[in-house]
Amino acid sequence: MEGNTLTAAAEKTEPVRSTLSPGRKIYSAAVKGLMILSSAVTVGLVLFMIVYVMVKGVPNITKELLTTSPSYLNNTIGILPDILNTVYIVIVTLLIVLPLGVGAAVYLTEYASNKKLVDIIEYTAETLSGIPSIIYGLVGMLFFCQFLNMQTSILAGALTLVIMNLPTIMRTTQESLKTVPQSYREGAFALGAGKWRVIRTVVLPGSIDGIITGCILAVGRIIGESAALLFTAGFAHTLNGFFTGIKSSGSTLTVALYFYAKERGEFGVAFAIAAILIVLTLLINLSASMVGYIFKKRKNR
Prior knowledge:
Blueprint: H1 2-13, H2 22-57, H3 63-67, H4 80-111, H5 115-129, H6 133-147, H7 154-178, H8 182-190, H9 195-206, H10 208-224, H11 227-232, H12 242-245, H13 253-263, H14 267-300
Helix pairs in contact: 2-14, 4-7, 4-10, 5-7, 6-7, 7-10, 8-9, 10-14, 13-14
């Protein structure tokens, strides 16, 4: 009796054999192979680009290049003003776009009751995210530089980038807010918390990962943008302080890369700037990931 029981148990635990036909097995293997090949090609292209730019650019990075301003009299090239202008435009853009984007996402997700209005705003945001950056540059030049009389300046460029990055911040935050379980809100309401207190203490901390993701995407687009800034921020390589610099014309690193490669044929300097941009992007991504980890760790306590 006991032997029959063990035999039956062994039969039950025997692994289920695949019932796929040979044709389906070949098809599954082919699809799996194509996915692996696609992943390998993608990773290979990214690594090739990074290594190629670093090999070409790092030898051209010198202390003089990083710490001086360009001088046509002494025939020297320096990108310190371009580095500072890039930092200025990132700071100004984020200070404006983050409150606007997160606030719009909170309103659409937590407060708006008119579904048709929400659909219209979401469709508009998706449309804005698909517009080429050169069009943003033309509109920014006509509206901010000419109509508002800002001239070509860091502030005009930052406001143009705000419009470009607002859909990204808004949509990523909105999707992150939707992932917070409704039971969390209901539990907070049951304890007597008001609407804004629930959003501030429960919903926003629970969606901090999505907000940081949107911030990373925005910073990456700000640093890598050149077409829109050619018309709004200008080409100046002048060293200015923060408050003076945002009101003045200034070239960012990407605009400087275009200028030195296209206008002056200084490809060594262009590759050096490209290497700096790659390192800067990696540092920003790592910093944002660390901030997200810290917030997540605080939330789990």
